[in-house]
Structure formats: C-alpha cells, structure tokens
Amino acid sequence: MKLRIGFIIVLALLGAIGYVAYTQYAAGLYYLAGQYDRMMNPYGVDPDAPEPTAGDRLFHRSMFIADLHIDTLKWERDPLQRSMFGHADLPRLNDGNIALQVFTIVTKSPLSLPWSRCVSGRMPDTNTPLNFMQGRPVFSLKDRALYQIERLKDAVERSRDSDGPELRLIENMEDLERLVDDRLAGKSVIGGILGIEGGHWIGGDEATNEDVRREMQELFDAGVRMFAPTHRFDNALSGSNEGCTRYGLTDHGRVALTEAERLGILVDLAHISSDGLRDSVELLSSPVTVSHTGIRAECEAPCRPDRNLSDEDIALIVQNGGVIGVGYWPQAIGPSVWRIADVMEHIMLIAEQEGAEHPSHHAALGSDYDGSVTPMIEVGHLDVLTAITRRRDNAFHPDVTRDIFGRNVCRLFGTVLPGGDVDAASELCARLEHATPPPTEAAQ
Ligand SMILES: [Zn+2]
C-alpha cells in the first residue's frame, strides 16, 4: 500500500515538473516567435518624406481609404491591441483612417537564398517552425489557412464589445453598402475582407476538377472573398513570377479561378507569372486585382524587377478593368516614398494609352504591412502619402487621390462580391465623393 502511495506521489511530482517544463518551453517558443515578428516587420525611414500640413490631414480624414493587402494574421499579436512592434493592428489602422482592409492569409514561405534566381516550393518552409512556435497547425496548409480565418472572425466578435473601432467582416454587397453608409455617418467601423495568398493545397495529380471546385466552395463558405492562386513559388494552379519554371495557369488553376468568379471571390494576380496573368485575364470576365506590387519600369535596386509588373502586364489589367495595389516597401518601389505616386502615375499613363475611360480607376493602395517587408510609410501616418499626391510637381487632382485611396477598391468589390454589379458599385462608391467637404484654403 505504502509503495503504491509513494509511486503515485513520484508520478504526480514528475507530472508537475513535466507540466512546468512544457509551459516554460512553450512560453519560450512563443517569445521567440514574437522576436522573429519584431525582426521581420520593421519600419523604414525616408528622410525626404514630407510633413503633412493641416490641409493634407483634413483631406486625408475626408477620404474612404482601402488597402488591398496586409499579412497581420500571420503573427500572434492581437489584431485589436496596439502593439509596440510589427506594422498594423486595428488601433493603428484607425489612426491611418483605413475604412476597408483586406487581411491576407499566407500558409507557406519557402526559404529563398540570396544567390538563387528563383524560389522553389521544395526548399524548407519558414512558416512551419513559425507555426510550431506559435502553437498553430503545423502539418496541413489548409488547416493553417482555416486557423487564420478563425483568428480574424474572433477579432470581429471581440471588437463589438471593445472600446476601439468595430471590425466588421465584409462578405457581400449588402455588407459593403452598410460599411459605406456607416463610415459616411461617422461611425467608427473598419471593414475586413479575407484573402488567400497561394492556394497550395488545391489541385495537383491526385485531385479532380470537382475536388478543386469543392475546395473553392469551402473557402467561400469560410468567408474568403479574395483569392491569389500563387505566392512566391510555382504550384499546382499556376507559375509564380519568382518561381523556377513560371508557367501559366494549369487546368486546375482555370477551374479554381472560374469557380472563384462564379462564387463572387475577387481574383488576385499578385505574385503570378506573366503567362499566368495573361491566361487569367483571358479566362475571366470580371475585373481582377494585383493586390500588392510595384512596376518594372525604372525599377532600381533595391527594387526587384521580377516580383513587379511589366508595362504589358499593366496594360492587360487595365483592359480587364482591374485594379493594381501599389506597395510601400523598397523591393516594390525603390528607395524613395515619392516613387509610390510615380508608380501610380505610370499606371494611369498606361491606362490613358489603352483608352481607359477613367485612367485613375486602376491604381490603389497595397501596403503589404506585416508581410516581412520594410515599408517606408507607417500606417498611422498614411497622411504622408496623401501629402505626396498633393505636393508633387504633377500633383494629383483631389478626385484622382480619392479614387486611388479607396474608391477604386470600393468599386472593385462592389462589382465582384455576391449581390454586386458594375452599376450598383459605381452608384454606391460615387457617394464617397461627398465623404466630408474638401479642405478649405484657410486650412492649408
Ligand atoms: Zn505577397
């Protein structure tokens, strides 16, 4: 009897020691994941960035601002709490006057070596140890995506009882209309749209077309409303612009994008190969986006030509009626924040050559905050970018700035989302002209 009690005590002690060791170990890993986040998502500084005037700030506050891409869900920071590191969270998005934000989901990021000329899906995946350290799903890419979807939905739920702005999931035209109305009424609400960057688990040798359609339906049912078939490496749907073969859309890629269009999911051609981009705009009749990119023209180091759009790519997006989200980090735009507006102007000039009815309807913001990049504009100081569009030699007309900062994305989702169409979208987003009165001269 004594022996048995002694045995139970020893076992309980071992269990307690094991539990403490495990929690310490898990806490240590969690801490390391936070340090990794801090290291991967710093802000850059451009000493030539202008200081916004009172007039710039007032104009900035008067706009409905939308951003096509942030990777905040990849990290363990609470999206509702203001963090001391990383790029974005709801309080900071609110500081920047963001009204509509696409939260994009990354599931796999293969190690890319500085000397290799392409990114291979066979290289070790840096998301695997990160997910392990964060206590997230490790083995299934689809589970990794579903986890991040739940993370946003959880933040949406909690935001309703918080002191901060409300975060609202936008899944259809009705949601978008309500968001526009509430923002015009001055309510503190930010619309969130779920996007996927790389459908790596969809399609392939083992899959049928029916399997591909089912996977797309599952993403739609989970709330996903923007879908990029590829990320930085070639997969079973398409080649990537940094992949090792860079082929166009595969048969399964065609099935996936056709299904996305049918369901009301916006197709995002960020990271896709040029062949994949051409195939996609030929296949689809709805407008598409390239959510976060730069342009190859005048792309000087540290700008990386491969991941950015050629003039031919831009012309195809314009012909499709699509929208290009311009990024803020040096690999997309080069060393100066003023280049952000130059890139936008370049897109408008191509649109003009292509005979676009409204050349300013094809550029937007695609920050890639929290995407392991070094953006040169802080989300809370996005009015710096407004100042740039107003102060450059060839200053943008206020209407052009309003288009680029949000109206184009409003129209795009209003056209593509379930219940939306071109006419309803243009009627809805035209209301944003009257967000608040334009700044008076006295405020300049
Ligand atoms: Zn990306």
In short:
This protein is an alpha/beta fold and 444 residues long.
Characterization of the model:
This protein is α/β, with parallel strands linked by helices and 444 residues long. The chain folds into two domains: 36 residues; 370 residues, Metal-dependent hydrolases (TIM Barrel), CATH 3.20.20.140. Helices cover 44% and strands 11% of the residues. Helix 10 links the parallel strand 7 and strand 8. Helix 2 crosses helix 13, helix 9 runs parallel beside helix 10 and helix 14 packs antiparallel against helix 15. The radius of gyration is 23 Å and the shape is globular. It starts with a helix and ends in a 14-residue tail after the last helix. The site of zinc ion (ZN) has 5 residues, from loops.
Features:
three-stranded parallel β-sheet, binds zinc ion, six-stranded parallel β-sheet, TIM Barrel, alpha/beta, 9 strands, 15 helices, 444 residues, globular, 2 domains
What's the arrangement of secondary structure elements?
Layout: H1 2-40, H2 54-61, E1 65-70, H3 90-95, E2 98-106, H4 127-133, H5 141-159, E3 166-169, H6 173-184, E4 189-197, H7 209-221, E5 224-228, H8 251-263, E6 266-267, H9 274-283, E7 289-293, H10 311-320, E8 323-326, H11 330-333, H12 338-353, E9 363-365, H13 383-391, H14 398-416, H15 422-430
Parallel strand pairs: 1-2, 2-4, 3-4, 4-5, 5-6, 7-8, 8-9
Helix pairs in contact: 2-13, 7-8, 9-10, 14-15
